[in-house]
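A quick aside before the break. I want you to see a complete sequence-to-structure record at least once, exactly as it would be stored in a machine-readable document. Don't worry about memorizing anything.
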Amino acid sequence: MNSIWNQVTSAGRLISLPEVYLRLKEILDDPDYTLAEVARVVSKDPAVTVRLLRIVNSSLYSFSTEIETVGRAITLLGTQQVHDLVLATSVARSFSEMNLEVMDVHRFWRRSLYCAVTCKILGSASAELERRERLFVAGLLHDIGHLIMYQAIPEYSLEAMQLAKNDSIPIHLAERKLFAFDYAGVGGFMLSQWRLPEVLCEATKFHVEPNDTSPYAYETAIVHIASLLSLAFDDGGGDFEEDIRKIDPVIWKSAHLTAEQCLHFKEETDKEFQEALHVIFG
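That is the input. The structure line, written in tokens, reads:
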């Protein structure tokens, strides 16, 4: 099965993030960077600038006055949040136009965005603003491994989907049974290749089976919960309450949440999802 892994990872290595993000990351990696440099890099990409300003002026942030410049956005949000928002819009832009025979890319991004919004709202119960933004990105990227797999090994991916359906098992277990790896592992590998923050790599790689001893147990647990709810959403609404009750109590503990809190957030999630869909993919 190593040959299948090699096919997938070779395809993943060919995918790079847009220049605006790479340049931004390069600047932020320099301890002597200035806010003016950050603003200048982001402003050079009109599409990213427009999306960034649309996001910060949306109900996702609810600032009291309109933010008209990238510099102002950076001052209010901080560089980490701007980094994460540029990363989110860059990934969405890079992958949203992929033409894959085995999946509906637009449906994939709707589900991923629902997971992202759910992560952010669940994080609002216990995490500071900066951490919530990172949760949003973690949710958006959690399923990125499937995009790589559907592009590199479409026939095998279809086989895994069919096995999951026939045996009524989660897709990651079907993939492990056939390939000895799963989409989460592929996604974690991909993010590490892009040299993204370790918390994003870990949350992506382990969200299917969170480990409560990990230094990122909180983020991974939040993504786990949100990913299950996004699957229920994708199934046409699903039974959120039933799916929530199936979650391991250890995961709730790691997430600093209860099932009741999660159910309480559903209406807010649905509302913010529609707003996020417009500002990121509109």
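Two observations worth writing down. The longest helix spans residues 105-123. The CA atoms of residues 159 and 178 lie 8 Å apart. We'll return to this after the break.
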